């Protein structure tokens, strides 16, 4: 055995979950009964496995230098056992924090942000349609009842947001990062609001524009292809939602982002930020190189913060956090739904991708998304990442509620309104 093979054997000997390794020579390490086999097609691909750099190993899988035999769920049991330090990266050194700040500044401007969004969301609408729900809601669902399927849970999530914002007929509502329009249409059709959405994805813009025409909602639903920093409405909005968007903003722009939320909202109005956060207090990426994998293949420019820093930043922008809810287990279940949907239709998914890219590129994109969906499901299951809905207000400095002096906003400071029978 080579030194690398010895290192791998030692790692397998201490692994809680059985794993079988097939070497480039044809030799096998690990028990025959293992549910997962990882086959290495050249010696260089063995190095990430020996060192525990799972992000680099994932990259080898995407490029085809390593292949997997086994289900995604079984593979994630192995990954959970291999990830060091309970999924948390080591505490960053001072120079690393400086580098993060500089890198965040360099990677986030209007042009780069638009390119990074399109890299992910404009892969292929037809591809996303294969594994998302019929409304193509690409964010954490809300399994209000245990027996809900994905489509029901996504509708429940849309309604949960609308209820938290206490949307009323005729109010002006903004959706920052509107995706394929699920929340826009749910709010307009069920709550009677005048709805505006913005996106940086050309595919999503085209899709929502077409749906507005088909549904005959042009008088009260609109979509703009623009950056959140460039939206200048004639007057501020009554209510605002940002779902699955602030992950793309970057540390360097987080204060600016929440300041824009503040300025887009009328005094007394309410906003909802629904986004992924990292569990480590030091805001480091997930350990084992998994964060690097997502940065390279899935979400370039994506940066996760701890929820405490997000709340600090919004507070500094003049907003008041009035309610925060962690939906972490809901996102684990959502991601497994997406992963299972994709796994059930792999040949169709690859054929769809081949319509817009070369066969080799289509195979790589599919392998990347398979690892990404299952890996993110694992991250939420294990608590390495979380999903928080943060409800905030822009206080107006006045006692505007006759029933609650000093409230200073539309928020009633009683959570029962979210679950009570709806009011028009």
TrEMBL record:
Keywords: Lipid metabolism, Methyltransferase, S-adenosyl-L-methionine, Transferase. It comes from the Bacteria. Coiled coil: none annotated. CDD domains: AdoMet_MTases. The active site is at 376. GO terms for biological process: lipid biosynthetic process; methylation. It holds the Pfam family CMAS. One of its GO terms (molecular function) is methyltransferase activity. Belongs to the CFA/CMAS family. This is Cyclopropane-fatty-acyl-phospholipid synthase.
